[in-house]
Design goal:
five-stranded antiparallel sheet, elongated, 171 residues, alpha+beta, 5 strands
């Protein structure tokens, strides 16, 4: 009887752990795909990625990564998958993906493989960096505008310096 209650307790702990990790997966503010490491087929996708790209879970599941519309335009997707299979890690800092409705989303794409029980799986974390990219562009634009302003001020000063002796000579 003691062994039976120990197994029940372990079972309850295992279910609680699974529920905790499932909750993390489903509430993450990054997109997450789980792939079969041999075939590249998508075995799980979290709600954030569905929302980000506009595809339903059914449109992701059981398709290979490069068969999903958002990734279809990636010419090197199959080659990248081969690298991921052999290296176990792959990262793109700035990867444009297309949403189902045709918008472009800039993402950081980080994939790695690990053992999940007795199976090797690939996890792809997809972070929307669109706002960060916009902020970087704004920052660079401000820097360039400041540089142009300084150039104009220098030209104005040089022009003034030249006009003064010319006015004296003319007068």
């Amino acid at each position: 009887m003691h062994a039976q209650s120990k197994y029940k307790k372990l079972g309850a702990e295992l279910r609680a752990s699974e529920m905790s990790y499932r909750r993390l997966f489903e509430t993450a503010h990054d997109g997450i795909l789980i792939l079969n490491s041999k075939t590249g087929q998508i075995t799980d996708v979290n709600p954030f990625l569905e929302s980000l790209l506009g595809y339903t879970k059914d449109e992701f599941l059981d398709k290979k990564l490069w068969e999903v519309g958002a990734f279809r335009n990636l010419k090197a997707a199959k080659e990248a998958f081969k690298v991921l299979q052999s290296e176990g890690y792959l990262r793109y800092e700035d990867l444009p993906l297309e949403t189902k409705d045709g918008r472009s989303v800039d993402v950081e794409f980080v994939s790695n493989s690990y053992m999940a029980g007795d199976k090797l799986v690939i996890q792809c974390n997809i972070r929307d960096v669109t706002e960060r990219k916009k902020a970087d562009v704004m920052k660079e634009t401000k820097r360039l505008l400041q540089y142009e302003k300084l150039k104009l001020e220098s030209i104005a000063d040089a022009t003034h310096e030249l006009r003064t002796p010319l006015a004296i000579i003319k007068g």
